[in-house]
Amino acid sequence: MFRPLTAILLVLSHFIPASVAGRSRKESFPAQEIFSFPPSNPVFIENLLPLPDNRILLSHFGAPGPDTAIYVLNSTTYPASVSIVGWLPNSTSQTGIAALGENHYAITAGIVGTNFEFIKGTGAVYVIELKNGENKAKVVDRVPVPNTINLNGLVAIPPLRGKHSKGKRSHILLSADSRGGRVFRIDLKARTAKVELTDAKLGGDPSNPEAGSIAITGVNGLALRKGQGRFDGWLYFANSAQGIVGRIKVDERGYQVVGKKGKVEVLGWITGRVTLGNFFDDMDVDEQENVYVGWVTERVLKIGKGTGKQTIVLGPEVVNRTVEVRYPTAVKVGLNGKKKEIFVAGGGIGGDGTMLGGQVIRVGI
Ligand SMILES: *[C@@H]1O[C@H](CO)[C@@H](O)[C@H](O)[C@H]1NC(C)=O
Ligand SMILES: *[C@@H]1O[C@H](CO)[C@@H](O)[C@H](O)[C@H]1NC(C)=O
Ligand SMILES: *[C@@H]1O[C@H](CO)[C@@H](O)[C@H](O)[C@H]1NC(C)=O
Description:
- By secondary structure, the chain is mainly β.
- It has one domain: Neuraminidase (6 Propeller).
- The chain contains 3 helices and 24 strands.
- The strands form 6 sheets. It has a 4-stranded antiparallel beta sheet with strand order 1-24-23-22, with no helix packed on it.
- The two termini are 35 Å apart.
C-alpha cells in the first residue's frame, strides 16, 4: 500500500550517523506514545498540528485516493482515539498543516507520483473549517498551486493588525517546495501562488547523489516562533539535502527581505553525512527560540537558542528512554505554554524498514 517508500527501506539501516552521542549532552526527557496506527492500517503520518481543544490534526502520505481522509486525534483518553472528520477530494497525500484562525486550517495535498513528488498540477491548498469539539470538518476552499511538484512544510503569516486588518484569519501562507528549493507565497484571498523565497540554502545538494531522493529535497520544514502574539519576521526552516536548520527574514506580509538583512542564518548542522537514512525533516520553534527538528530515522534534536547547543530529546541517547520514534517526520510545540511539551509525528517505519504504522509522541521538554 505504500509503494514509493519500499525503494528506500532497504538502504535505511545501512546509514547510521557516526558519533551522534559525542556531540550531544545526555539527558532524560519524559516521552509517551499517545497514539499509533496499527500494522493492519499502517498510515504514514506526515505532519501534525495541536488544536485549541487538545485534539491533534494529522496529515498523512501515500493513500490510495481518490480522496484522503482528514484524521483527528482525541487525546483526552489514553491512548488517543482517531476519527475521520472529512475528506480532501482529488488527493493521495497530504503534507503541511497551518492554523489560519477562527477554526480554519490549511492543509496542502496533491496526487503523489513515483518519487514522493506531487504530479505537476495536482498540488493545492485545502482550507477546512473544524470547530472546537466538533467531529465534522467542512472543506471550504481549494486553491491550486499549479507550477510545482512539491508542497511540504507550511506556515500561515499572522494577520496584520491595525488599519489593514479585517478579521482575525490569516490568508497568507508560505509553503516549502522541497524539490524546487524555494518557498511559495500563497494568498488565499487573491487565490494566487507565486515563488517568493529563493536562496542557495533552500536548495538541494547535487554533490551528494548517493542520497537519492533526499539529495533533491531541499527546504522541507517551516516554522514561525510561537507565543509572541506578533510575528517576529523570522521564518525557520530545515533543509533535508543540506542537513541544516536555519532562518530567513520575511516581512509581515510574507515577502522575502532582500539585501544584507535577508541573509540566511544557519543555526545547526546534522551529524554525519546526509543519506536516505540520515536527514532532517519538519520542525518547530518555541517561544524561547529553541528549535526542534525531526531527524530521520529515530531522533528529535533540539538546537538551543543562541548557543546552537544540540540535545537529543527523543532517540537512543536519551537517558532512561521509554519510547522509540519510528521515522520522525514532524514536530510541533504544544499550545499550553506552561506545560512545555512537544508533539512528534512518526511516519511509522521501524528500524528494519518494516512499515509498522504512524505514531504520535508527546515529549516533555
Ligand atoms: C534513570 O533511571 C534511574 C533508575 O530509575 C535513576 O536512578 C536515574 O536517576 C535516572 N536518570 C535520569 C537522568 O533521570
Ligand atoms: C477532481 O478531478 C477531476 C479530474 O481532473 C475533476 O473533474 C473534478 O472536478 C475534481 N474534483 C474536485 C472536487 O476538485
Ligand atoms: C474526546 O473524548 C472524550 C472522552 O471520550 C469525549 O468526552 C469527547 O467528547 C471527545 N471529543 C470529541 C471532539 O469527540
